Amino acid sequence: MTATVDPVSARRRALGVSADLIAATLWGFTGIIVTYASTPAVVLTFYRLWISVALMLLVLLLQGKRVSRPALVLAAPAGVLLGVNLTCYVFAFRLTKIADASVIGVLQPGLVLIPAALFFKEEIGVREVLLTAVAIAGVAGVVLGTGFGIGAHWRGDLLAAIGTLAFAGYWVFAKSARRRIPTSEFMFGVWLSAAVAVTPAALISRESFAVSPGRAWLWIIALAVVPGVGHILMNWGHRFVDASVSAVISILNAPVAAVAALVILGQALSPFQIGCGIVAVVAIALVARGRPGRAEEAGDPVAVSE
Question: Where are the beta strands (DSSP E) in 57-114?
Answer without folding.
Answer: none
